[in-house]
């Protein structure tokens, strides 16, 4: 029983990291149907922001609190720049956008190497987040994992509320559902795109801050995470957040269980096979917006 | 059809074909034959005479990359399937060949050196055994990648998973493969891969003469693949493939099955990548996860984009040029090369989607004065929505 819950929680915490990365992607992918490979480097930017802030603000707890909004703005600004300079010019060619943003991500990685050096750097975690919570039954849960879970859920909740209740959210949903109709209804779609990109990239920045609690910060930290996050979005279905939420946790638990029963490497293969099998059943992902368009 | 993605802006993708308009068939054939003879002379006579052994070995390596590029040209340039996981097929071919050569080096009943090192294995693992026979290993270098591509492709294309979804899946396949190889260190050599391959069917690979022989085999194979590709592209099937790329739904309504059309291109591309991997091993003497993972897989694509994705020769020239530039620059300025590579992705793909090959045909078209070609490759802005086009997912 203890083992079961332990694995379950490991899976959930893997899922929380995935979720935090994937909701930003789900937002931008759903909005513009483009794959942003540089999303991983926005995560990296968020992580390095935390590192830089900790150089000037010495208190680990305070710097983390300051880092959250700052990383959001830094990564979001990078996202807007990318959208304005390149992505908006390539809307008609989603596959080309993938390659172009990959090029951008290569350059950003090299930039990080030149500025911060190739070796990984480390931040100090606040004391509050270094311990464990002991649960009855001999279970312990690491505080930093709990914090990330809370952060991911808070981000999802905030985003859901923003999409449901605010005028901006209404406009974003309108553009996702039918861009042309939204445009003729008087919505400035390009402005909405830019805002969406700011929010989505900013969420990557938040994910970067969270990841500093789990491990070292390096120029290629984004690349390793981004593919799993893309898979979450693909399997979850685009245009809605609930698919990503469910799939992130499901993949996390599947990964953790697979790892427990076999090995890490076999677990990765199991996850991949499961995804291909799942797409046989629902090729457009778990939840889709139903429209009458072909394809 | 139930399904569906929020409609992307229904805009026709920019045409990337650089094939000039129809010319008389006889002259075209003559030109092709002349070009082929020129290429053969270059590869078989000029390069071996002009280049040192070291440079020739490098060229052999580049030509292997070019073979992968030819396959990507078919799948992506002609078929519209952006495959970011060709490293998997390259690796399958490479590992199949390397396993055979390792076993041949070890002699009958022997085990590869690395297995004693980390594996603590008493005997050869079962799945290694068939590779001792060249009659199994050699066909496997091509058939194994083709089988994997067939398996994945038939599942994925039939359910109409395409576009960016397919690209991500193919990339995830590369990630899974590398993690699997590294994880099973005892039987796959882990991060190091299969190294230190000495012999090639009885020939000593340290001998420069034999290295030359390997080069000639690679050059000959590449020419054969190019001839095959040309035939394929100019066949009815080739036309159908382009039609599927440009309007999958329309082709379906005409009564064809787009899934099978795409599957053939994907499987052919995988076979070419497998062959390239198999020949890469004797040329370079190593195959490792670092050569086949996510990053090298996507690097295969950039050469294709630079040369011209929809042409026969473009991918080859682009791949060789990019590989050469990489060697020349990354030795001296490693950081600069990464920036340049990133810039290459951005500039070529965004601003010159037809690759360098399109410059040639643009120049020609301007001579003829048929239409102002300038706008087509410089115009980046949002194109007008065309109501008739079915949005490609």
From TrEMBL, chain A:
Family membership noted in the UniProt record: Belongs to the binding-protein-dependent transport system permease family. LivHM subfamily.
Transmembrane segments: 6-27, 59-82, 146-163, 197-217, 229-254, 261-281
Annotated organism of origin: Micromonospora inaquosa
A Pfam match: BPD_transp_2
Name the UniProt record assigns to this protein: Urea ABC transporter permease subunit UrtB
Keyword annotations from UniProtKB, A to Z: Amino-acid transport, Cell membrane, Membrane, Transmembrane, Transmembrane helix, Transport
Domain of life: Bacteria
One biological process term in Gene Ontology: amino acid transport
The keyword Nucleotidyltransferase is annotated on this UniProt entry: no
Membrane topology recorded in Swiss-Prot or TrEMBL: Multi-pass membrane protein
A single GO molecular function term of this UniProt record: transmembrane transporter activity
Gene Ontology CC terms: plasma membrane
Protein's cellular compartments: Cell membrane
Main location: membrane
Ranges in coiled-coil conformation: none
TrEMBL record, chain B:
Membrane topology: Multi-pass membrane protein
Region described as Disordered: spans on this chain: 1-22
Residue spans of biased composition, Pro residues class: 1-12
GO cellular component, one term: plasma membrane
TM region(s), chain numbering: 33-51, 57-76, 83-101, 135-157, 164-183, 213-233, 263-288, 300-325, 337-360
Main location per the UniProt record: membrane
MF GO annotations: branched-chain amino acid transmembrane transporter activity
NCBIfam families from the UniProt entry: urea_trans_UrtC (TIGR03408)
Name of the protein in question: Urea ABC transporter permease subunit UrtC
Natural source organism: Micromonospora inaquosa
Gene that encodes it: urtC
